[in-house]
């Protein structure tokens, strides 16, 4: 693996972890992670961090935040 390959994959890592990659890109990222232990370690760390934040922060969001965010999204879309 070249450093450029790793930079490209890590640049797309959040999109990949969100499940928002186009099919070809998803296959390329998966193949790279299969062959590159440092990038796989980074992906595993990011997944763990996301899980930790999700499990710790849901109950702590200020009251009404979700409604304000959804309202703002709706106004931006309109």
């Amino acid at each position: 693996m070249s450093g450029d390959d790793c930079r490209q994959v890590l640049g797309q890592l959040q999109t990949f972890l969100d499940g928002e990659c186009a099919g070809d890109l998803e296959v390329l990222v998966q193949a790279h992670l299969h062959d590159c232990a440092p990038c796989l370690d980074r992906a595993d760390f990011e997944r763990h961090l996301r899980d930790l934040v999700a499990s710790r922060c849901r109950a702590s969001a200020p009251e009404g935040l979700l409604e304000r965010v959804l309202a703002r999204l709706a106004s931006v879309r309109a």
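The mean pLDDT is 88. Residues 53 and 59 are 11 Å apart (CA to CA).
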